[in-house]
């Protein structure tokens, strides 16, 4: 069979060309779990990462608390009910149950594989949190030992389709030079979320590439209005670990206390204050030396910037800022059509931050845990389904020789586009405190930019990855603001200054499709059994 | 800015940092230690420090400005390898791999 592939151009022959059953794009937790699960069913798996599987992505450098809940009915009930109100009732118990089950099972496997979980005073292992470097080093080792081909520094730039199915992907060999091409029976997108190169911890590789690649082949997105996650970091550093700020109080420059400011509920007070003056913090609620020692042992990376500057965060005031984490700690992403984590495009699956997390946390993820569980569980679900889909097709990858698009010149500087997009998504008075007029004006500028660069190709090979990342961030920003304009209420993390309350008539998801023209439709949600909480 | 110091005296040219840096900051050389080639792409994730087997790298936490640190200065303050030690990736601090106290955080 020799049918022309979509997404290819006849000009460059790829330096690396591999055929496999399942291609996994992204080697964070979602990608690793997907690859392992697919391989365990007997699929031949290739995993590509823009950076290095094991050190790249949000989890590897940040570490995560995990939604690890033993299968005790009472505990599970509390766990499921805990976020439903905060997430605006856009989650569904029909998803939470299998995600909790799979997470519990998988984290227990981590323990079997030798992850060094700490023990409490009774000698029982505590499995609610993982240190990023340790966890992802172990995951890489498991992936490698499972016989999976790992291609580091091989960013994917486009999906390949044949007769409406996704049949592989192509991309750049960032260190070796040239291009790569992988033909696959099915593809799992696990390229993470989008933090717009804000330098939030470990997030600069997360530029929304998976959203753009998915949308280009016709996949839908959901929950993109839940993309205004800003994390607290010291002003002099980009370590956006925020959990310990619940032991902090926040101050003005003259050291007067900012009433109500806090890491969780009071984050908007911090944001509001930052619009007009600097904000300082001090972890003065930690109290005893014993508690301080626990904090240090829980999050060594939180303390790195302070120790390097000889600042004692428990006693010294230090300036803080809010750094955009976009959808990484938001909840939007590609829409999944069911528990197999398929998208609307045959052969294309999505997992982790690349997929919308609304099914388990609605419009808010807050203090973590859910994201990590989502990556683990959807990774496994997507990997299994992609393998099954691929293996049931005969010669899925038999489509003859293929080539990949060669960038040609249009004279566009990707750095300028990136800066222009950041200028639209970083400002708190556009993205955090949202209004119709500011969102609309911003979206118009972004749309105009897209007309110029949406389809542009790069000046040279050095530029082509950056241009692709710039395009992906631009597309993501447009998805965000298109959805944010359509949700004329405040729900989850989406805060509309002009519509400050939750509107029962908008208890639905917003599904986006298209790129040049982005269409919005509504989708009903059945949250399952939940108790109406007093807001 | 960010990754500031590579101690070329202790570096073994193993190029692990070139491999693990997620944003491709380093560039391997035909001979000798890698170069800090794209410093402005550094996201201050500290991963290169963790993987460097001989503690030859130092990342300054400021993601937005260069601070002009020197090998001597970092040595003097005993900061080489400090993060690796803190998480138990140094051979003398192995026990620290088990100290994740999240479960002890006061609720
Ligand atoms: C500071 C911080 C703290 C956090 N704390 C918590 C917490 O306590 N609990 C919690 O649940 N969640 C937490 N999160 C969120 C959590 O880290 C993410 O939800 C999780 O990492 C998602 O996993 P993932 O595999 O989908 O994406 P990632 O871990 O981000 O991995 C994505 C991978 O895809 C690769 N990639 C990107 N683009 C491409 C491309 N074009 N081609 C090939 N590869 C590509 C990247 O290099 C990366 O390796 C935190 C996030 C941050 C930033
Ligand atoms: S700190 Fe991270 S981004 Fe910077 S050079 Fe080291 S590994 Fe690369
Ligand atoms: S990892 Fe350390 S020893 Fe190896 S090349 Fe880099 S700086 Fe040198």
Record field, number of beta strands of chain A = 19
The major pleated sheet of chain A works out as:
7 strands, mixed
Present as ligands are: flavin-adenine dinucleotide, iron/sulfur cluster
Q: Span from first to last CA of chain A? A: 59 Å
Total helical segments of chain A: 15
Percent of residues of chain A in beta strands?
15-25%
Ends apart, CA distance between termini of chain B = 37 Å
Mean pLDDT across all residues of chain A, rounded? 92
Radius of gyration of chain B: 15 Å
Structural description of this entry:
In chain A, strand 18 (508-513) and strand 19 (519-524) form a beta hairpin. The radius of gyration of chain A is 22 Å and the shape is globular. Chain A has helices at residues 29-40, 58-62, 73-81, 93-112, 132-145, 209-216, 267-274, 289-298, 300-308, 358-361, 370-392, 414-425, 428-432, 436-453, 461-486, and strands at residues 12-13, 16-25, 45-48, 64-65, 129-130, 149-151, 156-162, 165-172, 179-189, 221-222, 229-234, 249-251, 279-282, 318-326, 333-334, 348-350, 403-404, 508-513, 519-524. In chain A, the strands form 5 sheets. In chain A, strands 2, 3, 6, 7, 8, 9 and 16 form a 7-stranded mixed beta sheet that branches. In chain A, strands 15-10-18-19 form a 4-stranded antiparallel beta sheet. Chain A has a 4-stranded antiparallel beta sheet with strand order 11-14-13-12, covered by helices on one side. The longest helix of chain A has 26 residues, at 461-486. Chain A is α+β, with helices and mostly antiparallel strands and 535 residues long. Chain B contains 4 helices and 4 strands. In chain B, the strands form 2 sheets. Chain B has a two-stranded antiparallel ribbon with strand order 1-4. In chain B, strand 2 (26-27) and strand 3 (35-36) form a beta hairpin. The longest helix of chain B has 6 residues, at 71-76. Chain B starts with a strand and ends in a 21-residue tail after the last helix. The A-B interface holds A 50-52, 54-57, 60-61, 65, 116-120, 126, 128-131, 133-134, 152-153, 174-175, 199, 201-205, 234, 236-239, 243, 291, 294-295, 297-301, 303-305, 307-309 and B 18-24, 41, 43-47, 50-51, 60-64, 79, 82-83, 86-89, 97-106. The complex binds flavin-adenine dinucleotide and iron/sulfur cluster (SF4) (2 copies). One iron/sulfur cluster binds at residues 2-3, 21-23, 25, 42-48, 59 of chain B.
